[in-house]
Amino acid sequence: MAHTIRGVLIDLSGTIHVGDKACEGAVAGLKKLRQSGIPFRFCTNTTKESVAKLKNKLVNLGFEVHGNEIFTSLIACRNIVSSRGLRPLLFLEDQALEDFQGIPTEEPNDAVVIGLSPTNFRYEMLNKAFRILIDNQSTPFIAIHKAKYFAESDGLSLGPGPFIEALEYASGVKATVVGKPEKSFYELALKDMDLLNDANHVVMIGDDIVNDLGSGAKELGLIRYLVKTGKYRDGDELRDGGVDGLFENFGKGVDAILDRLKK
């Protein structure tokens, strides 16, 4: 691929950190990328924490991160809910609710919003959401993302996707997905870097062939780099039409980007 690289989009969980541990080479890789002057943004489906808490977590892991560099599906969802004046039933962890301050959530709810919320994925809450959806099939059903699973320090864990699909199956209401791999989500970060019309000169680095490098990334023509950390499994690089680069970790991916700039 001969395109000059003008920007980089970076996944967080599984790509530069797993749980409370930075991935090998990630801190140094981000430092080198920042020093190169290439603009970058973090594009994450992380919904267990607010942007402020996420930023603090990354700083504590050794990364230099500025709040305006982080684009989360949580904020994108909040903007949709606010603009439509909805009063949702929220499946969110307490640490993420900070980003929904000011959004009314009292009953009766007129929407269902689901992020990654292990403490809420229990029968009582799921059945409450089901009843809201089945009673009015025009009820907005918003999935902040639909990842099947995510990487934790002790292995893979179920993501929100299976619970969202269970509700879709039971209620007959299809969820609208807000975060990756939706094209509109990547566009938010590209616009912020003033690179929306140069998407084929922008690298997306992630560990998930579907939710980081899937439909929206492909539609926009992003250069897709897959890293062998987080939820990566052998052979992922051969799925979904392949990728533009496969690297042991984020740091190696950054090295490849910087090497291309020298040519």
UniProtKB/TrEMBL annotation:
<keyword id="KW-0460">Magnesium</keyword>
<dbReference type="GO" id="GO:0046872">
    <property type="term" value="F:metal ion binding"/>
</dbReference>
<dbReference type="GO" id="GO:0016791">
    <property type="term" value="F:phosphatase activity"/>
</dbReference>
<keyword id="KW-0479">Metal-binding</keyword>
<dbReference type="GO" id="GO:0005737">
    <property type="term" value="C:cytoplasm"/>
</dbReference>
<dbReference type="Pfam" id="PF13242">
    <property type="entry name" value="Hydrolase_like"/>
</dbReference>
<keyword id="KW-0539">Nucleus</keyword>
<dbReference type="GO" id="GO:0016462">
    <property type="term" value="F:pyrophosphatase activity"/>
</dbReference>
<dbReference type="Pfam" id="PF13344">
    <property type="entry name" value="Hydrolase_6"/>
</dbReference>
<comment type="function">
    <text>Phosphatase that hydrolyzes imidodiphosphate, 3-phosphohistidine and 6-phospholysine. Has broad substrate specificity and can also hydrolyze inorganic diphosphate, but with lower efficiency.</text>
</comment>
<comment type="similarity">
    <text>Belongs to the HAD-like hydrolase superfamily.</text>
</comment>
<keyword id="KW-0378">Hydrolase</keyword>
<keyword id="KW-0963">Cytoplasm</keyword>
<protein>
    <recommendedName>
        <fullName>Haloacid dehalogenase-like hydrolase domain-containing protein 2</fullName>
    </recommendedName>
</protein>
<dbReference type="InterPro" id="IPR006355">
    <property type="entry name" value="LHPP/HDHD2"/>
</dbReference>
<dbReference type="InterPro" id="IPR006357">
    <property type="entry name" value="HAD-SF_hydro_IIA"/>
</dbReference>
<dbReference type="InterPro" id="IPR023214">
    <property type="entry name" value="HAD_sf"/>
</dbReference>
<dbReference type="InterPro" id="IPR036412">
    <property type="entry name" value="HAD-like_sf"/>
</dbReference>
<dbReference type="GO" id="GO:0005634">
    <property type="term" value="C:nucleus"/>
</dbReference>
